[in-house]
Design brief:
By secondary structure, this protein is an alpha+beta fold. Helices cover 33% and strands 28% of the residues. The chain folds into two domains: 159 residues, FAD/NAD(P)-binding domain; 176 residues, D-Amino Acid Oxidase, subunit A, domain 2 (D-Amino Acid Oxidase, Chain A, domain 2, 2-Layer Sandwich). Bound molecules: flavin-adenine dinucleotide (FAD). Flavin-adenine dinucleotide (FAD) binds next to α1, α2, β11, β16 and β18.
């Protein structure tokens, strides 16, 4: 293509959050950067998610530290790029003694730092829309952006204020440095970072297949609460404590899982847990479920939606709440939480395989760039 510039220090494949975070990191290092994206705009997991940048509950150790680093960078980048942080923090409402035990064990770890217990009776007086709980934990570490606005804003800012070139509607078909072939011509670059999200069949398919990566499909909803209310933060429930590894890997989670298996087997079967966040217009983004397979599930099930809303009503006393929008999203999933490889010198391939890319993107981008620039 005639309008393709030759000669970049780095070409990034994919304009999801991992690609955009990589482009930002590379510009911080003074590199000349281009991003190549198959679609006219980002339409993948990065715009379909909750925009919930979560630290609390991430897998203990390296991944938790990735999330800490990423949350700090998100706040910095958001303020520069004109992205609103819609709310901060997280509340976990525990409704079973086994769930309280998990949270107590969590608080005793380094991950509980700066988290605190709230008085549940006071919380119910302040927030009559909240159901009764046995314990309420607050974490200050999280923040939330409206992904469907934030991701386009981030790419716009990178292009217009940070000097990154974008090639939209352009699929990368092969990477043989210094040549990067696309559906619209070739680019030349010294380094390439491939951030394909859940596109497992275009570039380096054998590498991704060997890593055992598959698709995970999630159902999501937008809910009108039916009354005026302002959520003070994101909310999660007992089901999250057997799903998010920072809690679920604690020995105390076994008893909770057994109890939930007896009481909410259908929820566990569909991989359901509850995250609720709020948007600027007062509506709530509610999810989610997790179904694994070789391909994305195109269809949203009413039964699964009912189960998610059932858990919603366990936590929120909002009888007039109604679903106003539905969508599915899919991310690449594997046993480990991230996959990164160096298929050839100068090239890094990276996928967040634990469903936490919004929360760990900037730290992971730094790792990918280090890998691509390793000689
Ligand atoms: C419903 C849902 C809810 C989620 N909630 C959260 C959450 O609250 N918090 C959190 O941290 N994470 C969450 N996640 C996970 C998170 O959204 C993902 O981990 C993250 O968005 C992955 O980003 P990505 O850039 O790798 O992928 P994507 O956003 O899928 O972007 C990859 C891009 O690469 C492009 N591409 C691929 N191959 C090529 C090629 N050959 N040439 C050109 N372009 C190509 C694709 O078109 C795509 O735009 C959620 C995911 C889903 C689906």
């Amino acid at each position: 293509m005639s309008n393709m510039k030759l000669g970049y220090d780095l070409v990034v494949v994919g304009a999801g959050i991992i690609g955009l975070a990589t482009a930002w990191t590379a510009r911080q290092r003074g590199m000349r950067v281009a991003v190549v994206e198959r679609n006219a705009k980002a339409i993948g997991a990065s715009v379909r998610n909750f925009g919930f940048i979560t630290v609390t509950g991430q897998r203990r150790g390296e991944h938790w530290r990735r999330a800490q680093e990423t949350a700090a960078i998100w706040r910095e980048v958001a303020s520069q790029a004109g992205i609103d942080v819609i709310h901060e923090g997280l509340h976990v409402l525990a409704q079973r003694p086994e769930a309280v035990a998990v949270l107590e064990a969590f608080m005793a770890t380094e991950m509980g730092e700066d988290c605190r217990w709230l008085d549940t009776k006071q919380a119910q007086r302040d927030w009559p829309w909240l159901q009764r709980g046995m314990a309420l934990l607050h974490s200050p570490h999280e923040c939330r952006v409206e992904s469907r606005d934030a991701i386009p804003r981030l790419s716009h800012w990178l292009e217009h204020s940070m000097g990154v070139d974008f090639y939209w509607n352009t699929a990368v078909t092969s990477v043989h440095l210094p040549q990067i072939s696309t559906s619209r011509g070739s680019l030349r670059a010294e380094h390439c970072v491939v951030c394909p999200g859940n596109d497992l069949n275009a570039l380096f398919p054998n590498w991704l297949a060997q890593a055992g990566i598959r698709q995970c499909t999630l159902q999501m909803m937008r809910v009108a609460p039916g009354q005026a209310l302002t959520l003070p933060s994101a909310f999660m429930s007992d089901l999250s404590l057997v799903r998010y590894e920072g809690y679920a890997d604690l020995p105390e989670a076994a008893a909770l899982k057994a109890r939930l298996q007896a009481e909410q087997a259908a929820h566990l079967e569909e991989g359901i847990h509850l995250i609720v966040v709020q948007s600027a217009d007062g509506s709530m983004v509610v999810g989610d479920s997790h179904v694994y397979g070789a391909a994305e599930q195109p269809f949203a099930s009413a039964a699964t939606e009912d189960l998610i809303m059932d858990e919603f009503h366990q936590v929120f006393n909002l009888p007039k709440a109604r679903v106003t929008e539905r969508w599915v999203g899919s991310y690449a999933s594997a046993d480990d939480v991230v996959y990164k490889a160096q298929p050839s010198l100068g090239v890094a391939l990276g996928v967040i395989t634990g469903g936490t890319g919004a929360s760990t993107s900037f730290a992971f981008a730094r790792e990918l760039l280090d890998l691509a620039t390793t000689v």
